Amino acid sequence: MKKLGFAIAILALGSSAAMADCAKPDTPKLPDGASATMEDMLAGQKAVKTFQSANMEYMKCLEQVFTTAEAKVKEGADSADEAVAEAQKTYTEAVEAYNAAVSAEETVAGQFNTEIREYKAANPG
């Protein structure tokens, strides 16, 4: 029975380690639309697209982590085992990180759209 508990503990710790394997992308530096050149804006657009792609991969990784942790919680639902508590913690942290990644993507897109409007206002025609 101790071996089973130890194995579950190792699996739960693996979930925490798996979350550490998910690479959170850096938020891109956006150009100031009011003073940027067209080349700056195009570079900013490229940086946003790169960020969005990397963020999607990050979210997929987090989804795998919280799906695995959720399954472990369900398997041990009737248990007060430390491994179940650790899996629940991993699940919660992964979901929170996923939600933060969604918010970060929305924020970056919103900020870039603001910079586009500022660019257009500073460069009519």
Uncertain stretches: 1-15
Radius of gyration: 21 Å
Helix run count:
3
Judged by helices, strands and strand pairing, the structural class is: mainly alpha
Main β-sheet description: none
Written as H for each helix and E for each strand, in order along the chain, the element string is HHH
Helix content: over 70%
- Mean pLDDT over all positions: 87
Q: How much of the polypeptide forms β-strand, as a percent range?
A: under 5%
Q: What general outline do the C-alpha atoms trace?
A: rod-shaped
Distance between the termini: 75 Å
Strand elements, count: 0
Keywords: Signal
Signal peptide: 1-20
Structural features, described:
With 125 residues, the chain is an all-alpha fold. The chain has one domain. It contains three helices and no strands. Helix 1 packs antiparallel against helix 2 (38-75) and helix 1 (2-21) packs parallel to helix 3 (82-122). It is rod-shaped. The model is unreliable at 1-15 (pLDDT under 50). Residues 1-20 form the signal peptide. Keywords: Signal.
Sum up the structure in keywords.
disordered N terminus; 125 residues; rod-shaped; 3 helices; signal; 79% helix; mainly alpha
Compact description:
With 125 residues, the protein is mainly α. It contains three helices and no strands. The N terminus is likely disordered.
